[in-house]
Write a structure and sequence with these properties.
This protein is an alpha/beta fold. Helix content is about 50%, strand content about 15%. A 5-stranded parallel β-sheet has the order 2-3-1-4-5, sandwiched between helices.
Amino acid sequence: MKRERGRRGKLIALEGIDGAGKSTVARALVRALRRRGLSVALRHEPSDPKLGSLAQNVSPEDAWTGAVYFTVDRYLARPALEAALSRHDVIVTDRSFYSTLAYQGSALPARERVRLRELERSASREPDRVILLDIEPSVALRRLGGRARHRGPLEERRTLQRVARAYRTLARDPRWLVLDAREPVAELVRSAVDHVRPIRRPAGRTVRRRQK
């Protein structure tokens, strides 16, 4: 069944510090929503690996420039995102502009944080729902321990502590759901599905089961 003309899908963002398990939960959430008959797509940020790498590398020394790189990536990817939202009931995104506000924004003075928020909202699509996988940086670093030699420049303890505090402040918004990332994935997904439950399968749509 084709989507109604002009009908837009919902954008659901998974947020949290590195090591919180966003990618695992995002994939499981997509599967759970599809089982409920919704048309769902999964996306990741950054969309352009080169821009993402530039942003990561410059951010520890110049948070504003790092934020701009991430914002340019998001701006360039926006047409494709809008097109996907016109085709699907739900887009689950592993990170959104809130990652930039948490990581780079928390390293900026208050006035520049306000400027960055305005820039992000003008360049990016704001999520309809945000799910924060909250975790202590010490636990996240233990999870990341297996890739210690390949950690990014933003995966240091002090940075993750600052970013975790920033996320908790952002999560005061009533559209956010905060989950304990130490919970089993099945429990996290169940809570996430409840959070997005107002999104219903369009009447008359036939659920297509994937062949194994």
